[in-house]
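User: Study the fold:
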Amino acid sequence: MALQSITSLATITLQQATSTVTFSGITNTYRDLILAIDHTVSVAANKLVRFNNDEGSNYPWIYMGGNGSSPLTGINTSTSLLVEAVAAGSATERLLTVVNILDYSATDKHKTALVRNGRASQGTDLIVSRWANTNAISTISIGLNNSASFTAGSTFSLYGRIA
């Protein structure tokens, strides 16, 4: 079995609150991308992840999760965002999100993303999503709805993985 090589491409640590973080100019050097987000927010909101500024309804996903006592499931076949994960509900509750984006530079297939979220008050969840587009991903935008902001100290890291 070959060893995998993971390279840090960029890390953004917020010095002040902002509603959107963007990684742009992503080269096609790697096979997969890993996006790690460790954050808090000003008010409860859904996290919105989009590729190449695409706001079309082509990010279908399936959701499953649980908090140890209640299982949760859901599906959305026509949405304009990759992740509709509820972000942390306050400036003190951290949420960790890890997004594995498979074959992001391939131009002959749609892109698959595996999203894992975890926070103390809500447990964990997993979202399997697809970007219904064959373009290579060169920009990833992470935002919030509900007029919310990521708080200072939130960290966004992007890694490239060679299989």
In short: The chain has one domain: 8-162. The first strand starts at residue 5 and ends at 13.
